[in-house]
Amino acid sequence: NDEPPQRTERRLTMRHSQVTQSEFSRVYMADSLSYGKKEQSLPLFVLAQVLGGGKTSRLYRSLVTQQKIAVAVNVDYNGFSKGPSEISIGLVPEQGITIAKIEEAMDKELAIFLKDGMTDEELARAKTLLKADTIFARDGLSSMANIMGWVRMIGLDTDYFANFPKLVDKISKEEVLNAAKETLKKEQSVTAILLPEVGGKK
């Protein structure tokens, strides 16, 4: 059964005695290679790398390197899911920085991205990282078996993964930005905040 579309932002705050470092996570509902607007899936793979693929990514550069308000940035997307997928952004604030501040800074950076898009250099770097991940997965037999299983399960040809780098190369900045605008909507997101039990700050 298809899930009903989410039309309001959901928020969840949890405190736990074993948590020593606050964490922020936002998950956006997204299409996949087998669900919804399937043509947006490849651009979303690229988007995840532009926003959070390594130390040269948009969010890492802004929040960690320049503003020094985060110690970790992680952006994930799995388009090989059977059914709807999600794109998730995880942040760990620098000591003494509130979750509210890091969320505001992230939202500001996302708004700039959605307005202005990415540079040619950012797109090229994201594609390189994505293709490197693909080659790395191909070299690992266990993960390769898992990937081929997923590819078959969602109804794609077995050579799809072999052609993946060529398909990635064809993705344009406009396609990535359009997919971002369709997906990075607060009303179709879930925000989770994990805080220490004693003396935690929002």
Textual characterization of the structure:
This protein has a five-stranded mixed beta sheet, covered by helices on one side. The chain is built from seven helices and five strands. α1 packs across α4, α2 crosses α3 and α4 packs antiparallel against α6. The model has no long low-confidence stretch (mean pLDDT 88). The relative contact order is 0.25. The protein is globular and about 50 Å long. The chain has 202 residues and is an alpha+beta fold. A hairpin with a 7-residue loop joins β3 and β4.
Layout of strands and helices, then pairs:
Elements: E1 10-16, E2 23-30, H1 41-52, H2 58-66, E3 70-77, E4 85-93, H3 99-116, H4 120-139, H5 141-153, H6 160-169, H7 173-183, E5 189-196
Parallel strand pairs: 1-5
Antiparallel strand pairs: 2-4, 2-5, 3-4
Briefly characterize the structure.
By secondary structure, this protein is of the alpha+beta class. The protein has 7 helices and 5 strands.
SSE run: EEHHEEHHHHHE
Mean pLDDT: 88
End-to-end separation in angstroms reads 36 Å
Supply Rg.
Answer: 17 Å
Let me know the number of strands: 5
Continuous helix count: 7
Could you say which structural class the secondary elements and strand pairing correspond to? alpha+beta
